[in-house]
Amino acid sequence: MNRVLIVGRPNVGKSTLFNRIVKRRKSIVLDMPGTTRDVIEMPAEWGGKEFLLVDTGGLLTGEEDEILKLIKGSIEKELPKAEVIIFVVDSKSLTPLDEDVAKLLYPYKDKTLLVVNKVDSLKDEEKIYEFYSLGFDKVFPVSAQHGKGTGELLDEVVSRLKEASVPRDEAIKLSFVGRPNVGKSSLINALLKQDRVIVSPIAGTTRDSVEVPFEFGGKTYVLTDTAGVRRPSKVDYGVEFFSVGRTLEAIDESDVVCLVLDMGEGITRQDKRLGGLIERRYKGCVIVANKIDLSGMSQQDIDSYIRKELFFLDFAPIVHTVATEGRGVEDIMSGVEKVREDYTKVFKTSFINRAIERILEERRPPSGKKGKEVKVYYSFQEKNRPPTVVVITNDPDSWQENYVKFFKRRLRESLNLRFSPLKLIIKGRQT
Question: CA triplet 419, 421, 423: central angle to 5 degrees?
Fold first, then answer.
């Protein structure tokens, strides 16, 4: 798919423009330089043409900060791949940093469009002409916040795009979640065999949820790297507050979630909280035991430890990795495929009812009020992703928690759902 790249110095409104074009609040927007760090990608459409819009971190030249160097390096890799480059500046001032960014873009001058953002008044419009000094022929005054001028900009963008067929098959949504600095970004880079997301020993490097289209084994995936989630008392309002929200959103939108653990530190309360979020949302899950070289345990002992601490994710396969060496990384995708196969299964109604009949023969629900026998009239699969079974009964309130746990365990076994959660809905006949 054609790539359209947004670049510029910090705080000129790149992420606001990105969100305006993709028509959703995807990139985090705050009045704080350096909010966006990784390369963020989202499909967009204008005039019947689809393209991949790419948001980037703010460019600061001449800085020695390690993260800023990584940001610049990731943008330099993106420039040759882009079909169109949108260079964003702020109408309020033309700075030496803008001139430095312009010099970086000169080799790509023919495919660069200069966007003067924050043109909100007649006074702002009068300043536009000074930006021609940056040396670009196409200058577009816009207000990304209010949408002014974005239509004209997009008309020019799509006129420059090559015709390309867009794959219509629905991608499998896969997210990587975990505490800060457990190795999520390193795992994705090792899986993609390129430095696709920024990796740094500084906790909190990833802020946005970074979506990366990816093919593996002939199937299409969208991999999502997320900000590390700390416990609520440690989260300040601002960038990290929104980052945690994006992580929870990524879990909700995923088919399969990879819960990444740092085995050098062991399983923490926050790991259990994240696991609980995955389990309560009935998401497919792969447990990635990363940094096993620092654990001091055998793989068998690691598995026993994980099963004890994360017992509620008993359906999730465990993969052992050392992300920095690439060890075990491709096993993640084998685990993902096992989960996906079970997570998307569809069963005939007759098969489900026969399975439930056998479970009831083994052990019936406890009697209801006044010794009333609990009956099951019929059952059916409501949907998949996750497999969801509805049981119609005469007395839903009598299904006690312990019996429901037993019933779900047996039903999962009967349906051969080894690697997927099962959602069970108990309903009365009249509901």
Answer: 150
Instruction: Give residue 231's pLDDT.
Output: 45
Same domain, 13 and 121: yes
**Closest to 380 measured CA to CA, from 354, 355, 352:** 352
Expressed as residue numbers, the domain containing 18 is 3-159
Q: Is the overall model pTM greater than 0.70, yes or no?
A: no
Q: Is residue 186 part of a domain?
A: yes
CA 86 from chain centre, in angstroms, equals 25
371: left (phi over 0), alpha (psi -120 to 50) or beta: left
Of 314, 342, 370, the residue that ends a domain is: 342
Instruction: Report whether pLDDT(263) > 90.
Output: yes
The CA distance from 303 to 311, in Å, is 11
CATH of the domain at 393: 3.30.300.20
Q: Can you say whether the dihedral through the CA atoms of 13, 14, 17, 18 is positive or negative?
A: negative
Q: Which two tokens stand for residue 160?
A: 């420059």
In this predicted structure, the answer to whether residue 10 has a pLDDT above a threshold of 90 is no
Residues in the chain: 431
The number of distinct structural domains making up the chain is 3
Which backbone phi and psi does 30 adopt, to 5 degrees? -140, 155
70 and 177 assigned to the same domain = no
Write out the DSSP string of 135-189. Answer: --S-EEE-BTTTTBTHHHHHHHHHHTPPP-PPP-SPPEEEEEE-STTSSHHHHHH
Q: Among 122-131, 253-262, 395-404, which stretch is predicted with the lowest mean pLDDT?
A: 122-131
Cα angle for residues 73, 79, 84 (degrees, 5° grid): 150
- Give the pLDDT score at 24: 58
Asked whether residue 164 is domain-assigned, the answer is no
Q: Are residues 95 and 204 in the same domain?
A: no
Cα dihedral 183, 184, 185, 186 in deg (nearest 10)? 40
Contact 332, 187 (CB under 8 A): yes
At 283, give phi and psi (nearest 5°).
-95, 145
